[in-house]
Structures are given as C-alpha cells and as structure tokens.
Amino acid sequence: MPLRAISSDPARPALLNVLCSPLKEGWRVYLNPEWVPPYLMHCFDENLEACTPVIDLEDLDQYMHYHTAEYEKRISQFGDVELTAKGDAAEALAGWLATAFATGVRERSRPR
Fold first, then answer.
1. Cα dihedral 31→61→81→33 (10° resolution)
2. Is residue 6 part of a domain?
3. Is it the case that residue 8 has pLDDT exceeding 80?
4. What is the mean pLDDT of the chain?
5. Which domain does 96 fall in, by range?
6. Planar angle of CA 9, 99, 1, nearest 5 degrees
C-alpha cells in the first residue's frame, strides 16, 4: 500500500507547497511550512530546504493519478517547478516527496 500522510488537525485542511529548483546535479527543494507531516519535516534543514538527486515529475503525475489526487504543477521558463496540493492531495504529495527523498539515486563514496 502506498505511503500516505495523516493530517494532525482534521479541522484545518492540509496545504502543501514546495518549489523545486534544478541544480547541476539534482534538485533543491524549498518548503512552505503551512502544513508538513512530521516525517517529511525531517527531510528538510533549518532553512526548510532539501537537496535530492532526482525529482521524477512523470512518476509524481502517475502517483497522484493513482490516488485520484488533484494538484497544481507550475513550471517556470528556468525549469523551477512549484507543486501545490490541498487536503487529501497534500497528504499524497507528502508521501511521494518522502519516498523521493528516501529513494533518490546517490553516489557511493569511494574508499581511500
């Protein structure tokens, strides 16, 4: 079963907004702290930024479609991608992001 977040305050709908900016070797992800499940917050530093080698937007589209979760995806002319989701869609997006951070392709360090 795919990972999903549970809102800590059911009276207030979840709203998740992130900006993904391409780097030479990966992506920097900026988090808007409106709503964040605790397990996802651990992926970000004190400035609410995280780096990951891969953001697979096609996989995200498939994941959100599977969950019947509507979200906004805006792509700038510079390649930045803003993702915004509300309610159940925010919970699905949080689950996908956590998986993306956990399963990103990472180079192994070479023994010296």
1. -10
2. no
3. no
4. 85
5. 15-103
6. 75
